Amino acid sequence: MHSFGLLSAAIWAPILGGFLVLAVGDRAGGNPARWLALLVSLLTFAITLPLFTSFDTHTAAMQFVERVPWIPAFHIAYFLGIDGISLWFILLTSFLTVLVVIASWRNVSMRIAQYLAAFLIMDGLMIGVFCALDAILFYVFWEAMLIPMFLIIGVWGGPRRVYATIKFFLYTFLGSVLMLVAFLYLYFHSGDSFSLLAFQKTPLGANAQIWIFLAFLIAFAVKIPMWPVHTWLPDAHVEAPTGGSVILAAIMLKMGAYGFLRLSLPITPDASHQLAWLMIVLSLIAIVYIALIAIVQQDMKKLIAYSSIAHMGFVTLGFFVFTQTAIEGAIIQMLSHGFVSAAMFLCVGVLYDRMHTRDIQAYGGVANVMPIFASLMMLFAMANVGLPGTSGFVGEFMVVLGTYQVHPWPAIIAATGLITGAGYTLWLFKRVIFGGIIHAEVAALSDLNGREILVLGSLAVFVLLQGVWPAPFLDIVHQSVAHLLQQVATSKIPG
Amino acid sequence: MWIFDWLHGLPPIWVYLLIPLAPLAGSLVAGLGGWFLRERAHWAPIAGVAFALYLAIFVLLQVLHGQTFYGNVYTWAVFGNLPVHIGFDIDSLTAVMLVVVTFVSLCVHVYTIGYMHDDPGYARFFSYIALFTFSMLMLVMANNFLQLFFGWEAVGLVSYLLIGFWFTRESANQASLKAFLVNRVGDFGFLIGIAAIYHYCGSLDYRTVFAMVPSLVGQTVTIIPGHPWSVLTWIAILLFIGAMGKSAQVPLHVWLPESMEGPTPISALIHAATMVTAGIFMVSRMSPIYEQSATALSVILIIGAITALFMGLIGLVQNDIKRIIAYSTLSQLGYMTAALGASAFSAAIFHLMTHAFFKALLFLAAGSVIHAMQNEQDIRKMGGLRAHMPITYLTFLVGGLALSGIPPFAGFFSKDLIIEAVGESSLTGATFAYVLLVLGALVTALYTFRMFFLVFHGKKRMDEHTQEHLHESPWVITAPLIALAIPSLLAGWFFIAPVGLGAFLDSSLQIRAQWNTIGEIAAHWQGTGAFLVHGLESWPFWLAILGIALAAWFYLLHDGVPAALNRLLAPFTWVLRKKYGFDAFNQLVFVQGALLLGRRFWHWGDEAIIDGGMVNGSARLVARAALSWRRLQTGYIYHYAFVMIIGLVLFMTYFMIWRG
């Protein structure tokens, strides 16, 4: 595949654009900054589209590769490339950034230029994570991405934002430090290369693999997050502004899962098999334990945050049963969760903008005054429940089917998510949307405006499209997953 | 027939596609254009469903001429290297279901014009019921488990939306949530069943799976160590758990009575005629699997029989007209399920069909009564309506007689056939089931005519105001009643041979010779007339007559008797009024249990142990150590960034030295 520097463009356009927005600043009420940010995000999205249209689905090799030496002394390279696993997340990132810019149009009034710039810069950094094939480059993007998110929560967040940001930062930062150590170890064993592809080919002893796997596990488990290192997520979501929650849930949580696919499974295949039981147990705890916690939440954002953790449990479960159906299902689940969690947080944002509370009890009967909103949120709730015909179904269905092939019991336990997921989502919906109006504030609510309809409506299209016809989404990942499975099945223990 | 001529020119797949898509289009028009169409919103859904009925009749005629279809429309996804399709399986079973579903749906659509006339959610209601029709059609037309599951869940969704249609009512919201969750318990089993099929057959396609079934006989699966089960029994029971949810079999029946919170037209369409029979349809469709498991068939037989009698008994003590009919529906679904257990699939489908007609009729007639009574549903406050609403009265009577199994009404043929078939069965539990089903005949007639007499005969017990406004319903309501009364009267006589005895359905079913109960009955078949005469000499008929006589004695002649009986049988009626305690048990164990566990996990697990102990505990440790570094925490971002860069540099330096 030819390289026209598309990936670089996709990374650097929003970052440069972000600085441009900073330079424009809040003059003229912030409108120039808003339009510029929208333009930049649209441009980035446009840059990422050719990745999809000219993607070759018949190969598992890296495409759109760019490789130039960066720090030659340490063989660190500016090395980019994507395969079927990364492609969707790049598109998801650039698409959601557009939506976040639109969604933030009016509801952020303070320092709008800086706010939007943070999202644009983060857009580029996140795309960078999904493209990077050099460990140091990967690490730099991985850590740098935290800074804008840290600022978004810390500056534009809720009352307990300081606690939340520090918790968020410490968790994720400390988690990743071990990843760096693992990278250094791998560097010396791969014949002086930081290339992830070289890491994947490096033979490693059983013990070394276990240690590297655990180092990666801590970094990724925190990001996903997996039980028991998940408690930063509800706090971060509660304090984050809507846009922050959207990106956090839709993209950042996927980073950890992506890390498993790009690093853990291919680099430490033997350890992955050996510790698969642990991963399956942790995933099942996420599905069962976290879902029960989600049921009793009083804060809408917390509820959806816990629901995210439970849904990510299906993803990690799917990875560690090593069947094609389950891994593909897990990837589809990641993508679907990107749409659905973004939509759910945007829905909460719509209500929060009007009522300034996320307390479920402050609502009730919203459908009476906001019928369009209620209909759209019903669709997203159903996707969250995993109803066939929506995107939420496809991934869970495939993970359960693929898991059953090797481990019936975990599949059965995971399938209880069908019941608990319906429980917390629809009970939330019942208390917020249905019922008579008890609070006067609810009676005064106005339905969605055109901008909100545009944002939620475009997510609705994807939720339905992916549910009714997931084939094109899966076609992209087939070869890469098959290749990955082959890598995982091949022992790397020397001798 | 000439009205179908032009369809012969179309590719068959187009015709099949149009059947579900026509109601879907109607639903979209009414749903998206409702704000603009308002009281004209019914046209698109009705046109869509009417067109679907027209096509369904065409398809039925074609199937009668041997023109079936099995093929795919598009590839939904590829799992590994297994393609999963959206496609259609058009055979006799599907054709019968298509006609029943679209016919009842059309009647209900027309009826709704009158019934929901003043409701602010008029367009929304039409959008939902047309969407329901689409989903149900997708379910019965499926040629693979994925699409079956899609239809299965989609009808559940619409049911949820319609039970909670009046969303300002707390009771309606409670009922809809309960319906969804209980159904999800069933779907949980169903999903695992599909996963097991995928595992053992490597496919989700009906024909491929059925072709694999013989090779699975004798294979075992060990789910609980030390207890190997037959793979086919395991699959069959898992799928049946799904059917128990959808078709409301004990103990997953609890949602159906409460679904009566929804508007009456959907009680007729969804919670009597079509959706709740999806489980019956599914098991019949899967007959190649079920026939290989005597254990599964026995379980089905016993659960069906228990539901048939014990849910009917609850119907005796209910006073809400819709709830009585709802318990009756549970009981009748039990009959159908028992028929499945006796391998009398064709009898089950036959009863499904007659029941769809007479039960939809009873619900719609009840709706007509409720309408006239200004939304009063308590039969104790009715009485003497006969004079005011003659059409409703007569059609309700037809429905009641059909339900009670009085010849020559439709229900007699189908119910008697089921009882006969269960009598022929030699499976474990068949005798037990037979006794329950025969006794059920008495109970059915008793609750039906208790309701009938209290509503239409005797003194008028409503208040003056209501009495003044009593009136027969408009034609859009009575016309569907008449349209449904005709098949409730005639469908049994005409369809017992082709449908009930399976002559027409046989090509869709697979029944093993050693327990072919219907084949046994068919072998001794001497014509419909002889069956009718034979029926007059059998227990169920005389028990039904006894039931009607008792009802007449209690509620027409000596109205003191019920109260006296009530006192006499107080412990028994108390149990019935408590509905055997299922609701209380579920509330206490599952609802409270889940909430309690959730709170414990949250406060003890997440907050106390993980956050309190591990996270903040280590944070405190660090804080103490870092007391002296506090000055560094200036709050300026560039300081933090600076520190980070320093850190990175330190790392680099360290590793340079180490390397060197």
Explained architecture:
Chain B: It comes from Igneacidithiobacillus copahuensis. The complex is a heterodimer of chains A (495) and B (660). By secondary structure, chain A is mainly alpha-helical. Helix content of chain A is 75%, strand content 3%. Chain A has helices spanning 6-24, 31-53, 84-103, 112-131, 135-144, 146-156, 161-189, 196-201, 206-223, 232-239, 242-267, 269-274, 276-295, 300-319, 324-355, 366-369, 371-385, 391-406, 408-415, 417-432, 440-443, 450-468, 471-489; strands at residues 63-71, 76-82. In chain A, a hairpin with a 4-residue loop joins strand 1 (63-71) and strand 2 (76-82). In chain A, helix 13 (276-295) packs antiparallel against helix 14 (300-319). The model of chain A has no long low-confidence stretch (mean pLDDT 91). By secondary structure, chain B is mainly alpha-helical. Chain B is built from 29 helices and four strands. Chain B has helices at 5-8, 12-32, 34-37, 43-64, 92-115, 122-141, 145-163, 170-201, 206-216, 231-246, 255-258, 264-273, 278-285, 287-290, 294-317, 321-341, 345-372, 390-404, 410-424, 430-456, 464-468, 475-500, 517-523, 528-536, 539-557, 561-568, 570-577, 582-625, 637-659, and strands at 69-79, 82-90, 220-224, 227-230. The relative contact order of chain B is 0.07. The mean pLDDT of chain B is 89. Chains A and B meet through helix 7, helix 13, helix 15, helix 18 and helix 19 of A and strand 1, helix 7, helix 8, helix 28 and helix 29 of B.
